[in-house]
Amino acid sequence: MNASIIADYLKQFEDYAPEPPKEADSSAASSNSNKFDNGHIFYALLEYIIRELPEREKHTYCYSLSQKLLRVCQSKERNVATYFVNKVEEQYALLNEEQALEYHALRSIFNPVMAYYHYYLQHDYERAEGYMLGLLENIDYLIGHGFLDGMYMKIEQYLNTARVYFNAGQYDKSARYARVVMQYLLSSGKETFEFPFSEVLRSANQLNSILALFFNGLIFKALAKPESGAFFRNDFLLAVFREMDISFNEMMEPATRDALAILLRISEGEEEEGLEMALDTQIFNEKVPASMRYFVLTALLHHNNAGDLLPEPLKNNIRLYQEKELGLTASQINVLRPLNAIV
Amino acid sequence: MIFKLSKYIVVTDVLDPNSEKQQRIIFSTRSGISALIEDAVYQKLQVGDFTGLGNNVLSRFMDYEIIVNNEEDEFQEILKLNKLGVKDTKSVSMTIQPTANCQLGCFYCGQVHSKQTMSADVQEKILQRLIYQLDRQRDTELVHTTWYGGEPLMGYSAIINLSNRMQEIARDRGLAYGAYMITNGLSLKKDIFTELYLHHKITRFQITIDTVKEHHDKRRITKKGESTFDIIMKNIVEICALEHYQARVKHPIFIRMNVDESNYQHVTEFIDYIVSLGLKDKVEMGFFPISNWGDKNAGDEQGLTTNEFAELEIEWLMYMQEQGFTMEYILPLRNYDVCMVVNEASEVYDATGNITPCYEFPYTPKYEDKKYIIGNLLEDESTYNNKTQVRGWYDDLATCNVSPKCSKCNLFPVCNGGCPKDWYNGEVKCPTVKANIEDKLVLQYLMDKSSLKTLM
Ligand code: SF4
């Protein structure tokens, strides 16, 4: 494809101006929010436990402990974290497998944070893996006993497991988990797990917000890591998304479906076709996950050095778009290849 | 498992006894979080009855450490967390005294000044010590310096040299760099401010002005007895008028007032004076009680009592609010460290090369004994004493060796003992917040009401 055609197409960014920062969305904190927020799932689990079992105070204490551990992990307080890890371990020691519901429920509350601690603060992938795999069993038990929202935990756990394997350099294993969960989320049927995701979904909005989270989590990670594959032909992403052979969930945003097809085309070596599709579709809108837009934009700029043809102000606008609209920090932009060479 | 109401809470009286909603403010010192609470709920909490609390409220109360595990020895748990938390410090902090000299001779100052300024050798050793600290603290994100004296500006060339080199070290390691300065303000001309503020990242200049001219010039005078108020205020006014004054932070200048029984009546007058100069939105202000320092016992001789000061402090804070000052958060924060003394990543280096854990020790005859000094930068590291008295504060508290009062105090998590040095000296001295915390809670509530920042 001629570079000047691409340069013409990219003129759509000439008028790009970042939107003023939005007021904090207070509804995001409410539990009725359509957005995906895993914190609410844990709280929903607590409420489920309280409904099903006595000892409300003890279970609330366990929940609160896990939240505290999560927070100190997030702020990288590694010594303080050991204090809460010890407290959590005290509670593990008290669990009795014969009281199955409590056993699985409390482990479902503790395991994800313990996995996070070992993965994020200790870089001990093996121990993290142990907690994660155990958790999948615990969640299955809870789903089997009526806690359907456990599906949210399950899909998130698949993504987390994929992340941990990815960071440990085990790309094949990572792709296997990612593929299973993506197949499940993207399809309208019951391909992988107990029942179609649409049975627990609150709305199309929620599905698309979850998809964005999962797409971005996988694609940005893969593109930033040369070991997982070349930028435009990333073996990891191909292993996750190629030939899924599913019928897409009809609530899924059509533009996201287009963007995925373009990403696959380009990654499979059919760059011309992929870019032609890009020119014929409307993927540069906020409904499409940022990572996909970033990938396609980079491919356009890269093709026959089309980026070099752009006038300076347009280049600046595109840079601004990457920062403001796609939410990339300067250091992320530096990590992501091969952006620097182009803009 | 059984649960109880934590003993680390402060509860105000019912805010408005005439209103339908009988509400109090509850402040958890273990978490530093305050919340509005119905009186009826509080009555139940007191007797350990949590049944009426909704799931959400129960979980929040546990999160805020208002309801805690009954089996816990809360004091020991707090100490355990403190000791771990101090190790999680993300900064290496240095207090550097580039000179032992100062132009002033304030009657309450415990330092003995001399003409000594920091040699090139000592400066080099400080940089080496910084590198040593950075290698040791693998999670460091920030290198922070507080320039202190004597009067630090009398060691200006050492400041510039060290600051350039430390910024370079921080840059090379991808770390942030920041600095503060405690100065008498006499030599802080606008060009010097500009250089230090813009190029040496000093974003807070603490300048002491002991209220109005009449009183300031009786006590913060030069060694020859000359007055200083007009010179310092002229500097401040000129600096505040600079175009770039608020380029980095909103309030680069912090005015500290040392208050005792001779000048407390003039605090509001001084606040008015600052307003009349148009500086209300440009400077931050704070009041501190005069206390004993080294061999100078000004605190005993003419200090206000804790209760007197605490009451006045609330009046001054309210007065400032009425005058339209931007008020910062006035409640004490939950910190893991009491102050720099318990943090090994925090050291003071004086002009002679002495390393101490507390900035009140250098140049102060009372603290010349070995137990106060870590070592000297010019000597071999093997000679250093890493167990100076105050560094052991939390261990001593755990065994109730010092200050048994603190182990029973509900403010401990936000105070951590106030000033360890004082307790070791046998002086029982609580910070004023001990006496006015409830008033502060109400004041903060009134300040926050519109945004409900700290409330449930
Ligand atoms: S110094 Fe006073 S206020 Fe602080 S913890 Fe000790 S007893 Fe409480």
UniProtKB/TrEMBL annotation, chain A:
This is Uncharacterized protein. It comes from Chitinophaga fulva.
UniProtKB/TrEMBL annotation, chain B:
Its cofactor is [4Fe-4S] cluster. GO terms for molecular function: 4 iron, 4 sulfur cluster binding; catalytic activity; metal ion binding. Gene3D superfamilies: Aldolase class I. The keyword 4Fe-4S applies. It holds the Pfam family Radical_SAM. Keywords: 4Fe-4S, Iron, Iron-sulfur, Metal-binding, S-adenosyl-L-methionine. It comes from the Bacteria. Transmembrane segments: none annotated. Residues 96-236 form the Radical SAM core domain. PANTHER family: ARYLSULFATASE REGULATORY PROTEIN, FEMO COFACTOR BIOSYNTHESIS PROTEIN NIFB-RELATED. This is SPASM domain-containing protein. It comes from Chitinophaga fulva. The lineage of its organism: Bacteria, Pseudomonadati, Bacteroidota, Chitinophagia, Chitinophagales.
